[in-house]
Amino acid sequence: MVLSFVSGVGARMGDPRIGKHLLREEGEVVVDEVTHHWFAYVRPGLLTALALVLLVGSWLVSVHVAWFLIIAAVLLLVRAGWLALGVVRDRFVITNMRVFRVHGVLSQSLATMPLSRILDISVKKPLHGRILGFGHFCFESAAQEQGLRDIRYVGRPDDRDLAIQRVVQRAGLRGPRVPN
User: Fold this and answer.
1) Model confidence pTM above 0.90
2) How far is CA 56 from CA 46, 50, 61, in A?
3) Nearest 5°: phi and psi at 103?
4) With CB atoms counted within 10 Å of each terminal CB, which end of the chain scores lower, N or C?
5) What are the pLDDT tens digits along the chain (180 aa)?
6) Residue 22, burial from CB neighbour count under 10 angstroms (0-12, 13-18, 19+)
């Protein structure tokens, strides 16, 4: 009973509920919902490992120093949990009409861009991203100030870029390619 409640709360905390942002009456459907690549969890993981080292170290020192280490470890664990929850709740969604991003833990932010406003998509893949299979998107539009400018730690970035290009092409927003 308690485990069911806890897992239900955990699922709600991690789910940004993408469906409530869709224009279903207009025929909008999700083409791809992008969560972050596992590499985005490295920083929270390192903070957790450091907290565990501090906890183990607290057993090896005097009681006066141990309390400081325990408090520092708890603070690190809270920070790591907060960062990890932020990564879990950050979603980038490609639909047949637009792209949008939903993110935030306590307050939720929504940034959206119609497909017709996308001028250019840059995919940046640093060396470690190429090795591990992630990249970063940079969207260019007529309005330079938007919440969709940079989407970081996107897994399979080439596939995601092709998915966006296919949706744009099918929507008839770009002319057919003319062979050289």
Assistant:
1) no
2) 15, 10, 10
3) -155, 160
4) C
5) 433 433 444 456 667 777 888 888 888 888 888 889 999 999 999 999 999 999 999 999 888 889 999 999 999 999 999 999 999 999 999 998 888 898 988 888 888 888 888 878 889 999 999 999 999 998 887 665 666 778 899 999 999 888 888 888 887 766 555 555
6) middle
